Amino acid sequence: MPGRLLRTICTGALAGLLAATTALTGTAATAAPVDEGESSVTGLLTRLRTLYQETERATEAYNAADEALKKQTADTHRTDAELAAARAALARGRDEAGRLARQQYQGRSALSPYLSLLLAPDPQHALDESHLVTRAARERATVVSRLEVAEKKAAALATAARTALTRRQTLLAAQQRQRQAVRTKMDEVERLLASLTPAQLAGLASLETSQTAGAQSQLLGSGTLDGTRTPSREGAEALRFAARQIGKPYEWGAEGPDTYDCSGLTQQSWGAAGRELPRTSQEQWRTLPRVPLAELRPGDLVVYFPEATHVALYFGDGLVIHAPRPGARVKVSPLAANPLLGAVRPDPDTVPLETFTPPELPEGATDGADEGYAGDQAPATDSR
């Protein structure tokens, strides 16, 4: 019941806005010039939120493609190195086989080792020579066997290298498509924002603030959150890292140290605490152990939207640290600033600290709109 109540509280305002937008616009997925029906602040806010969610969905798809490309590139380099080593070993084997063949040709005899022993003036010397001949034969057989193995290994690695290269090229093309998808969505957001008047921008900020405050008040008043919980040692370290990033610009696909997207911030924060997390918000939601919202403790990851396209670190007292959107900066926001999907815990196997003092937040940590349209927000950056 607490989880259902919390989700209802946090999604109610968004559902109402979507209904209002449907009535006003019929769709919120494009950024055509604003018409009279879309000029209401409610319709504009819903439309902007939709565009930002689509942008973040595209960003996380880009992150997934980029992560797969990184892994495949490493695999391709490793396979290429193994192939180069196998070819070098094959070349050495062929040189050795050629040397033995030349020795056999230069020292060949028409007599068998048995006849050589019978006819030799010094039988002991003949026995020694026979032993050397036998050993040389075994050496030749070993060289030939190694050569056959090396040839098979080199052939298999050559096939693997071609497969790895093809896979890398496929992933590179997918990454480029996802990069273009993000840029297209960001262009739509920028065109919409550029078409708005200062009065409309101020109205958006005011409406978002009032809606978030209402949802946050219901959330805190429901008694769902337990303000006495403390993080683990790792969770406290992750929070301290995240707090030090406050004020840095959002950049899609960024993993720090100067800019972040939402999952890049959570991944690097927990990485600083010694825990390796998946790169994307969807993978963090899918692979990490779920924790009931009523049992949230600082350091847990809070995941938003039905497709898990946004993620934040729970700070405690109903607040989160996150990289909100293009055009915004890493900041502290109310837990109910976006529709909640649930929460996960990167360190379920640890015990909470007996006491915990939250990291000190810098001045202005809560300033700015989460949607990235206020005048004091960071520029939407793209270095790729």
Description:
The structure is a single chain. The chain is an alpha+beta fold. The chain folds into 2 domains: 1-224, no CATH class; 226-369, endopeptidase domain like (from Nostoc punctiforme) (endopeptidase fold (from Nostoc punctiforme), Alpha-Beta Complex). Helix content is 58%, strand content 7%. It has 8 helices and 6 strands, in the order H-H-H-H-H-H-H-H-E-E-E-E-E-E. The protein has helices spanning 2-25, 41-106, 113-119, 123-194, 198-221, 233-244, 262-272, 281-287, and strands spanning 290-291, 301-304, 310-316, 319-322, 331-334, 340-344. It has a 6-stranded antiparallel β-sheet. Strand 3 (310-316) and strand 4 (319-322) form a beta hairpin.
> Which structural category fits the helices and strands?
alpha+beta
> Based on DSSP secondary structure assignment, what is the total number of beta strands?
6
Radius of gyration, rounded? Answer: 33 Å
Oligomer: single chain
Q: Give a short account of the largest sheet.
A: 6 strands, antiparallel
The total domain count is 2
Q: Which tags fit this structure?
A:
58% helix; 8 helices; alpha+beta; elongated; disordered N terminus; 6 strands; 384 residues; endopeptidase fold (from Nostoc punctiforme); six-stranded antiparallel beta sheet
